[in-house]
Amino acid sequence: MRGSALCSATLLIASLLLGTAPVAVADSGDDARRIQPIKSLGSTQDVRFATYNADLNRSAPGELVRDISTRDGPQASAAAELVQLSRPDVLLLNEFDHDPGGRAAELFNTGYLGVGQNGKRALEYPYLYTAPVNSGVGSGFDLDRDGRVGGPEDALGTGAFEGQSGMVIYSRYPIGTEAVRTFRTFLWQDMPGALLPDNPATEATGDWYTEQELAVLPLSGTSHWDVPIRVAGKTLHVLASNPTSAASDGPERRNGRRNSDEIRFWSDYVTGGSTAAYVYDDDGGTGGLGRGERFVVMGDQNSDPEDGGSLDGAIDQLLGHRSVQDPLPSSKGAAEAAALQGGANANHRGDPRLHTADFEDRSAGNLRVDYVLPSRNLRVADSGVFWPLLGTPGAELTGIFPFPASDHRLVFVDVTLGGSRSR
Ligand SMILES: [Ca+2]
Ligand SMILES: [Ca+2]
Ligand SMILES: [Ca+2]
Span 278-293, mean pLDDT? Predict the structure, then answer.
């Protein structure tokens, strides 16, 4: 089923249209903090794509709408201020509770992003896209084998209620709503060579789930969206998802295996051709992207290339893809945090400057899990992670546990469009 795309009536202010207005730069000296004016002069323009796991989820339906209706919810205000400092043109939020009318997504746009927070400049996003997700939708089966049916781990995607931890995309550029493809109902078992978990007590392989369960179990724990955006006279596909976390896995690795296949889905999708022939969307369309298409994969992939509990090589299916480039967004704040917090961080193999999430240091430690990965036929101008050094401007918005906004950090990549080279 295709989701609702909402276009708010707000208009771009003149200075944004002209792209020539000076932009206040809150310079912390951190390379992640460079804030650039939107360029629309000449034949090229830089477009900033950002992904941010906002942790704007609540324990019951309707709570997020209630919390942010007042326009002064402290967590939403901090998240909005942080986005206003980073000023993306296209923004994906993960872990943002979805309600059937998309009310929370609208409220956050008009009541927070669209209102200058703490003296920051308001952001105008005339276009937004949101749609239902699998999170919290009851499966009717005891998927985690704890002897009871119901609860977050038995849902089609981990979640306490329908729509918990959904997604929303905000854009300054038109969204091709009619051409959006969603892959919410694609069944895991329909992926060739799916890494279905095994019940070790039986001889058959890949049989943790019964036939009846596999007949309803989607691949996507949240959803997978291909959202085309029209910018600089070209179509660019935002490929948004938030694969299942392996954090609550059992020895059968049902979540880690699903996470890996959810990442593989975009890898196959951008390869296209016969590799993506198995793919079907929620409207019955088949196949992946065409040759030479422009795309940006965005989202919390719940997988670090070096550390943490995801399957070995899971994120490498995208990082190592021949059509994908990894700009390696980094920050000094992440390196500082890993050094200060110690614990699991001390044994990590990965470069701490690339971390995007400040996790519990007695278990996973800080990791790189949030990605903005442009296609190779796009020119990257800049990239970064919004994680200021402690004591510098903006650090009060990322903070230390308990976080004012989220345990994740905003990741951005600037792409130069209009002068892009072809493969
Ligand atoms: Ca159960
Ligand atoms: Ca078995
Ligand atoms: Ca930590």
Answer: 98
Expressed in angstroms, the distance from the first to the final Cα of the chain is: 34
d(CA 125, CA 16): 11
Task: Report the C-alpha gap between 422 and 420 in whole angstroms.
Answer: 7
Question: How do residues 5-56 score in pLDDT, each as one tens digit?
Answer: 444 433 333 333 333 333 333 333 344 334 444 444 456 889 999 999 999 9
Q: 182 phi and psi, to 5 degrees?
A: -115, 150
Is 423 a domain residue?
A: no
Mean pLDDT of the chain: 91
Which residues are close to ligand 1, an ion, with C-beta < 5 A?
Answer: 142, 144, 146, 148, 154
Q: Which ligand is located closest to the Cα atom of residue 139?
A: 1
Q: Which ligand is nearest to the CA of 355?
A: 3
**Any idea what the CATH number is for the domain that residue 190 is in?**
3.60.10.10
Residues 364, 343: Cα–Cα separation, whole Å: 9
The one-letter amino acid at 18: L
Centre of ligand 2 from the C-alpha of residue 243, in Å: 25
- The DSSP code sequence of 282-326 is TTS-B--PPTT-EEEEEEE-S--SSSSSSPTTTTHHHHT-TTB--
DSSP 199-230: -TTSSSSS-SS-HHHHTT-BS-SS-EEEEEEE
Q: What is the pLDDT of residue 113?
A: 98
| Residue 343: alpha-carbon gap to chain centroid | 27
What separation in Å is there between the alpha carbon of 347 and the centre of ligand 3? 13
Domain ranges, residue 83? 5-417
pLDDT tens digits for 76-86? 999 999 999 99
Domain count, the chain: 1
Question: What tokens appear for 417 in the block?
Answer: 């469009």
149: CA distance to ligand 1 center in Å? 5
| Distance between Cα 406 and ligand 2 center (Å) | 39
Residue 419 in this model has a pLDDT that exceeds 90: no
Q: Is residue 343 part of a domain?
A: yes
User: If you average pLDDT over residues 325-340, what whole number do you get?
Assistant: 98
* 373 CA to centre of ligand 2 in angstroms: 36
152 part of a folded domain = yes
Kindly give the distance from the C-alpha atom of residue 196 to the centroid of ligand 2, in angstroms, as a whole number.
10
Ligand closest to 204 (CA) is 2
Residue 200 lies in a domain: yes
Q: Give the Cα separation of 405 and 423 in Å (integer).
A: 40
